[in-house]
Design goal:
The protein has 21 helices and 21 strands. With 553 residues, the chain is α/β, with parallel strands linked by helices. Helix 7 links the parallel strand 9 and strand 10. The N and C termini lie far apart (51 Å).
Length: 553
């Protein structure tokens, strides 16, 4: 049992959230990281106890083309700003991990600059992979080299070079000593050398108790990376895909099959591993954008918090903002947000309130962190399973249909259960509970005791599900009223009313949200041509769009 086994992560892309310029002028230090300090209280308020923040160190642009591993990006501040930020997180009981971009460097990194200057005579020529002085590239370097993803901006490090290994180990020790971080997310772990990762695991075991290594892996057998000798966890892209497509296609079989396959690998079994679960991040579209039926925001997040693995929430998605991936830019996935625009969101935004409730349930219910997984019921539109640990059995129910569904499910040894989200109490009869699962909703049923009754404040949660489902399902417009519908920042307060100069952006957000709602409905009814899509976007009149939405009913 380690801190990360019970973690609920919040994920911040700091250059985007802080509104830093896209290109680094390498000029005067701008202390934008200080502006993110209020988010620490918010992170705790919505039930997260760990933060993944990155990339953070000096770079040319998006942060993954590192210029200096030991200097906070000057667009964000200085090293003292980062040390203070991590300390404030720790004071709130929030662990901090950051990006380790060790597969490649930027072209402004000292070793590559030396290579460009001294060529064959550079002491760093073997720091990089496949340097060939008989070729050239688009930068006219007079040589070529291996890169990441086809981008010569990202120069691949030779992770088998002892000098490179020593340098990276020194960097990690520096981060721990200077900033007191609790772990690292290894960027592009699926192309890192395995011996290099084993070296990092040995280092992690030495430098700090329970220092956590999580790797970015898109495809493959996760056990190749997650084991006692390599990494503690990897990004669970398999479940990510299943969660949104399983709802869009009304196909809970896809989700259940994915979970069983991962569980068969050893996830969350005795001595097994915990994958890093998410529904969106800085590289993929926002979950609110991907879901055709926005009401599915509710069951999707219930599954995120209740299935085996470590849940992670990407900044802003607790407000149900949108973000659409564009061909040549990820900017809409990484917007600048003003936390003041979401004032009292936990009280006034039903979807944020739901996320906060799920965070509390996750932290208070150990079976969700350590329990085994047993499938109880499965149809295309309904799904139930239990998580069982130390004699406690927790039952999870979700429904992606537009109608309620009654489930009769085997329960544990308790005399009664209570819905941690609905506050509804049900008795156990003949070893079963009979529960009504609301349309496009779900619940987490925990054994009813005096202790759990105190934790589940019925008056606090009784309207959570109804309000969240209604908010998400209101033709996609109600939830979109507080955001732009194209991934921009919200400029309205959480009651949905614009403030000050935000009126124009707020109104454009309402228009975009209605347009997205219309397109989502049209896609459900059949193929949408480019002309049909253009007709929708050409209509920028609010009342006309509202009537258009109503015409589908």
């Amino acid at each position: 049992m380690a801190w990360y086994d019970e973690a609920v992560f919040y994920h911040i892309y700091p250059l985007g959230l802080s509104g830093a310029p896209a290109e680094n002028p390498y000029g005067e230090v701008q202390h934008r990281l200080r502006d993110l300090v209020p988010w620490i209280d918010h992170i705790k308020e919505i039930g997260c106890n760990a933060l993944y923040i990155g990339p953070l160190f000096e770079s040319v642009g998006h942060g993954y083309e590192t210029t200096d591993y030991k200097k906070l990006d000057s667009r964000l501040g200085d090293n003292q700003d980062l040390a203070d930020f991590v300390q404030k997180c720790h004071e709130q009981g929030i662990r901090v991990i950051l990006d380790g971009v060790f597969n490649h460097t930027g072209r402004d990194f000292f070793a590559f600059r030396d290579l460009k200057e001294k060529r064959e005579n550079s002491a760093y020529r073997d720091w990089y992979c496949n340097v060939n002085f008989g070729w050239n590239n688009e930068y006219n370097d007079g040589f070529s080299y291996e890169n990441w993803g086809g981008y010569n901006l990202l120069v691949k490090l030779n992770q088998r070079n002892p000098a490179v290994k020593d340098y990276i180990c020194d960097v990690v020790r520096f981060w721990v000593n200077e900033f007191d971080i609790d772990g690292i997310r290894l960027d592009a772990a699926d192309v890192l050398d395995f011996d290099f990762m084993k070296m990092l695991r040995q280092l992690a075991n030495e430098i700090k108790p329970e220092f956590w290594l999580m790797g970015e892996v898109i495809h493959g057998d996760y056990l190749r990376w997650v084991n006692e000798g390599t990494l503690h966890s990897v990004t669970n892209y398999q479940l990510h895909k299943a969660l949104y497509s399983g709802h869009n296609d009304h196909n809970y079989f896809e989700i259940a099959h994915t979970v069983k396959r991962l569980y068969g690998m050893g996830q969350s079994s005795a001595g097994g591993f915990q994958l890093y679960n998410f529904v969106d991040n800085h590289d993929v579209e926002r979950i609110h954008t991907k879901l055709r039926n926005k009401a599915h925001f509710v069951p999707v997040h219930i599954l995120l918090y209740a299935l085996p693995g470590i849940p992670s929430l990407y900044y802003g998605s607790e407000f149900a903002i949108d973000g659409k991936k564009e061909k040549f830019s990820d900017a809409s996935l990484r917007p600048a947000l003003d936390l003041g625009s979401f004032r009292d969101a936990v009280q006034n935004n039903p979807l944020t309130r739901l996320i906060a409730a799920l965070g509390r349930v996750r932290q208070q219910t150990k079976a969700l962190s350590y329990g085994d997984y047993r499938e109880l019921l499965l149809t295309n539109r309904q799904y139930a399973f239990s998580r069982n640990a130390d004699g406690q059995s927790v039952v999870v129910t979700v429904n992606n249909d537009d109608s309620d569904y009654v489930m009769t499910l085997p329960a544990g040894g308790a005399a009664a259960y209570i819905g941690a989200l609905s506050g509804q109490k049900v008795s156990v009869s003949d070893g079963n509970i009979c529960v009504n699962v609301r349309a496009n909703s779900g619940d987490i049923w925990i054994p009813f005791t005096e202790e759990t009754a105190e934790k589940v404040d019925v008056h606090a949660v009784e309207d959570v599900l109804d309000e969240a489902v209604q908010s998400a399902a209101d033709d996609s417009a109600s939830a979109a009223a507080g955001n732009t519908g194209h991934g921009g920042a919200s400029t309205a307060n959480t009651s949905g009313e614009p403030t000050g100069d935000a009126q124009e952006i707020f109104e454009s957000g309402k228009i975009a949200g209605l347009q997205e709602a219309i397109l989502a409905i049209m896609e459900k009814n059949g193929p949408v041509t480019d002309q049909m899509r253009q007709d929708v976007y050409n209509n920028t009149h609010h009342d006309s769009l509202v009537n258009w939405v109503k015409s589908f009913r």
